[in-house]
């Protein structure tokens, strides 16, 4: 008997068994670990070395917005949120048995440590029976501005139940138009993410059920998940397209018939209802700029048709209407078409002043507003500033990026800003209940009242697209901020939304962004000198 040969065979057997055992460990602990971990029948989800220590979420200045603490049940961790006004944007995370929402969903793999080098490190951690650790996310949000926006959303409007109506449903987006960074994003009504997470962690669905059955849809993130009829704020796009393509100027003349109507487009009358200027316009002709300042639908129906369907839709495409907007969160696509079909001229006319088939998200209107404030170049909207690992090493960071080629020329953008100034000084934004003209920060704007009912028994969508400050002594000096705000079914955009937007700019520039020079006092004769106002001149 050859004892050495037998020992050699036995050694090979042990080596083979060891390799098989090692392969099994690699298979179960590395290759299929995520699937096993996610299996609802796997009770090891509650073991301390299996449950990820979820990454934190901060604002741009390092203010803590979301974090986790060990659960009182000894199973996993419970998520906490420091600013409930960000519930729509950040969303919530209630453990592996419930689908996360918002940033918690979009960046779930980062927050759970399942991406890149962090994933590799966490594989080692699991082999060493250490809990996985997630990455931290820094938003572009400034929580100081976010809290101001949430507070000022409740600034009372002049509610008369004729022009303006009470509404707790709405959206506000504050942006730096030159970088694309979102500084605040509010969705109303709010819900309590801490209460929701705590109850779901205990298997209590009562609060979640209450939220899902609430007709005001508090779980809906309105800035990106809902579309609305824009009303006259969409004249901003039509004016941009028409000027940039050479189909109008601010000084184009419209006689009385063209301004008041009716004018017939494809057999359909436009005006006299909706001309918005008959009560105080004495002298004709009036101009494109006059029609914008006082929101004349009849004039803008004709400008849209004169621009032409192909050109008008091309500019919509430039502004990402009808396209998927690249953003940290999924965004519902805005549209100006019915089932993608071409528009008849009368349909184009209605779309051109913000009615017809127009349905847009607040984020879409923010992009249009930002482009005009940034001299015609749209910037990619940014919500994520950087992502870091547990050692604070930067794994990913963002920088300002133009979104496509320049949408309109700088001269077109300058003209549109001038027209928006006319709205606030002389037109629909100058009325006493609106408050915009009282701000020392020279807010420029376009008001919008998106009609949703032909009978008028459902209040319109109330909108404002705004920029500030506006320097009349140097129009090429660009506004620092934009605010797009709306109240669902609030009625008149200026009257219902103007007071809160005025308060937001005043508070932001006095409490957060304090280094801006204040614009010069407005020229009291501006409206009469430019012809943008007729009564009292």
Can you characterise this structure?
The protein contains 20 helices and 15 strands. It is elongated and about 120 Å long. The longest helix is centred in the N-terminal third of the chain and has 29 residues, at 3-31. Strand 1 (57-58) and strand 2 (64-70) form a beta hairpin. 36% of the residues lie in helices and 14% in strands. With 537 residues, it is α+β, with helices and mostly antiparallel strands. The protein has a 6-stranded mixed β-sheet with strand order 3-2-1-4-11-12. The chain starts with a helix and ends in a 7-residue tail after the last helix.
Secondary-structure blueprint of this entry?
Layout: H1 3-31, H2 33-38, E1 57-58, E2 64-70, E3 77-81, H3 87-90, H4 102-106, H5 108-111, H6 116-127, E4 136-139, H7 143-152, E5 170-176, E6 181-188, H8 193-201, H9 206-213, H10 222-225, H11 235-244, E7 253-254, H12 256-260, E8 263-265, E9 268-270, E10 286-287, H13 288-293, H14 297-307, H15 309-318, H16 345-352, H17 362-373, E11 384-388, E12 394-397, H18 410-426, E13 444-450, E14 461-468, E15 481-487, H19 493-511, H20 526-530
Parallel strand pairs: 1-4
Antiparallel strand pairs: 1-2, 2-3, 4-11, 5-6, 5-15, 7-10, 8-9, 11-12, 13-14, 14-15
